Each structure stands twice: as structure tokens, then as C-alpha cells.
Amino acid sequence: MLTSIRNFRPEDIEALVHLYNRYIEETTITFDIAPHTVEHRQAHWLSHYHATGRHRLIVAECDEKVVGYASSSQFRVKAAYDTSVETSIYMDMSFRAKGIGTQLYTALFQALDEEDVHRAYAGITMPNDVSVAIHQKFGFKQVGLFKEVGRKFRKYWDVAWFEKEIGRV
After folding, report:
1. Single pTM value for the model
2. Which residues sit opposite 124 in a β-bridge?
3. For the chain, N or C: smaller number of CB within 10 Å?
4. Cα–Cα distance for residue pair 3/146, rounded to 1 Å
5. With the C-alpha atoms ordered 115, 78, 169, 69, is the resulting torsion angle positive or negative?
6. CA contacts within 13 A on the Cβ side of 27
7. Sheet holding 155-165: strands in order across?
8. Looking at residue 43, what is its pLDDT?
9. 94 pLDDT band (50/70/90 cuts)?
10. Confidence check: pLDDT of 66 > 70
11. Residue range 9-26: average pLDDT?
């Protein structure tokens, strides 16, 4: 299995939407409720993610199939938050636990080390031992817990917030 890690390309959108929609429909990992359309993602992603800068979308490809992504997105809209990003990682469920997520986050954080980014944040719906483990592997520390902050599948869920220092202080 040949794996490559690279920047997002517009032709990845359909595969990434399909990958993410499985998480919407089958898990509480995301609090999105309705599946996304390719058009919706295209409009947002093409304007938000770039090959340089704070907001990145890194893609994993195995044998020419898109199997996962990691992203750094705007944390909050107010300008004083600009040097903080929120990170996410999503894998095709059949490609989990193969080290590809580690490769994705390694590439993302190497890219962010070169940018004007001070902190990275990740919100993790609990329980999620796999996500907690990869974030801790990359130096994230839990800084808070929002109790029953989201409702999905007719149940309330807690979200733990994790923080990581990026770049130079």
C-alpha cells in the first residue's frame, strides 16, 4: 500500500465529502446532523484552505484513493483569535489504525510551525479514546470539558477541549 500525504486539490472534494458524511450519518464524532453536498463544501473549502498560511487541508492518498484528511481552520471569527486554529482529522473507517493519521498530523503540524500560529485547539466528543490518543501523541493537553453541549441521535454529548502550543513563543 503506497501512501502519499499532500495538499488538498479541488478534485478531492467529492471523496472527502463522502468520507465526512459517513461520520455525520453514523457517529457523534461530528455534530453536523445533515450530510454535506459537494457544492457546499466546494464553496467553503476553496475559499478557506490554501497551500500556505494558517488554514490548511492535508490529504492522505493510498494507491490513488483519498483515505483521510487533517485540517487547520479558523478558531473564531474575531481578529484577535487569528493566531489560533482548530484542528481536525478524519480517516476512511477502513484505513484507521494504519499510521496514516499520524502521517497527516505530522505534515499538518510541520506546515503550521512555519506560520504565524500560536495555539491549536481540538474539540473531541466524548468518549473517543482513539481521537484523544492521537491528540495526546501530538502534545495536546485537555483544557476543558463542556458538559452535554451537543445533542445527536437523541442523546446529549460532552465535548473535551484540547490545546497545543505551535511554533515559537
Report:
1. 0.92
2. 160
3. C
4. 36
5. negative
6. 16
7. 3-7, 56-62, 65-74, 84-91, 119-125, 155-165, 141-152
8. 84
9. confident
10. yes
11. 95
Q: Cβ of 26: how many Cβ atoms within 10 Å? A: 10
Nearest to 61 by CA among 17, 98, 100: 100
- The angle subtended at Cα 44 by Cα 10 and Cα 99, nearest 5°, is 60
- Alpha-carbon distance 105 to 125, whole Å? 19
Instruction: Answer for the pair 59, 52: CB distance below 8 angstroms, yes or no.
Output: no
Question: Which whole number is the average pLDDT over 141-159?
Answer: 98
Q: Output the pLDDT for position 169.
A: 46
Which cell numbers hold the place of 92?
Answer: 476512511
End-to-end CA distance of the chain: 39
Closest CA to 69 of 93, 42, 90, 45: 90
Cα distance between residue 31 and residue 155, in whole Å: 12
**Residue 136 in grid coordinates:** 495526546
